[in-house]
Amino acid sequence: MSSFSDQNGRRRLAILGATGSVGRSAIAVAQAYSNRFQTVCVTCARQGKKLQKIAQELHARYCFCAFDASVSNVGSEDELCELLAGPEIDVVLCAIQGLGALKPVLAALRAGKTVCLATKEVLVAAGEWVMETARQHGGRILPVDSEHCAIFQCLRHEDHDALRRMILTCSGGPFYRCASEKLHAVTPAETERHPTWAMGPKITLDSATLMNKAFEVMEAAWLYGVPESQIEVVIHPQALIHSMVEFVDGAVLAQLGPTDMRLPIQYCLTYPERFPSLMRPLDFASPMSMEFLPLDDQRFPAIDLARRALRMGGLAGAVLNAANDSACRRFREGSLAFDAIVPAIAEALAHIPAGKADSFAALEQAAQIAAETVKKY
């Protein structure tokens, strides 16, 4: 990571998606360690007034709201990308929802910057393009997702060639104990009641279908260069263990911690150092239990779709991502049942255009085909 760089020896941050849940947690870390971090730039999509207030509190020099130019002093997305690639930013924390994060992430990586990445869709849709860009230009991606941050910590001092498998833990969402015949009648409001994490409505819906976990399988494959056959998913409702790795000698390393996104955010922002925690530590003197349950692929087939997309390569990830967006939108509008979301996405995977996910034009074409297929489902 870049050395501390401003005149006071602080690391200079851009927080993309500052008004969302991950962005707010990142702000909490930056404020707690204001002697080590200077937030230079904050962005959001629509909550311009809220962003203005955040910028004032953090004394951020630059402010960009994609759909409210009145609160922005960065004129366009292209100007934002120039800023992220320029000398005023050391670290980019990306918590933008969706594929709108791809352009600024690529700009930062081409400039050799460190990107603390919380946006799953970037690697799901364009993993090969993103990782190759990082390799070519000396950029670095640090994973903010709690599961991938856990894997990163477990692998940090280990020989990757000795890895047998990665085990991603999954809370199971609100319906893993729900009878299959009841899933058809699930409402959008019910999907927003996640038992463990407080997140936005879209990612909470993805957690209910387990598409969120399917995306994490794809992220792991790109981040760590492993085949999907070495990545397993297990349901762990207590969410104390954020993920595990098993080595060829049978040893298993796990990362435990509170269910608080400030922990992985702080780890990535301060890497390779560790700063004192902002959270209450786990109390191992108090009674606690940990369950591990096998994943029911019949009831939750999303993860199999992710494996299929990884094996297919090309634009399959882009189609999977766009089809999920479209199917989730139809569900929230009331024109698609909950248990039809993943089958609609599976139908889209049967209509993948030829080519690689290495241009915005190719990604746009894949998204259009996926949306049309889901609409007809």
Topology:
Elements: E1 11-16, H1 21-32, E2 37-44, H2 48-58, E3 62-65, H3 77-85, E4 91-94, H4 102-110, E5 114-117, H5 120-137, E6 140-143, H6 146-155, E7 163-170, H7 188-191, H8 201-209, H9 211-224, E8 231-235, E9 241-247, E10 252-256, H10 262-270, E11 293-294, H11 302-312, H12 316-333, H13 341-348, H14 360-376
Parallel strand pairs: 1-2, 1-4, 2-3, 4-5, 5-6, 7-8
Antiparallel strand pairs: 7-9, 8-11, 9-10
Helix pairs in contact: 3-4, 4-5, 5-9, 5-12, 9-11, 12-13, 12-14, 13-14
Descriptive labels:
globular; 14 helices; about 375 residues; 5-stranded mixed sheet; Rossmann fold; alpha/beta; about 40% helix
Q: How would you portray this structure in words?
A:
The structure is a single chain. By secondary structure, the chain is α/β, with parallel strands linked by helices. It contains 14 helices and 11 strands. The strands form 2 sheets. Strands 3-2-1-4-5-6 form a 6-stranded parallel β-sheet, sandwiched between helices. A 5-stranded mixed β-sheet has the order 10-9-7-8-11, with helices on one face. The protein is globular, with a radius of gyration of 20 Å. The model has no long low-confidence stretch (mean pLDDT 93).
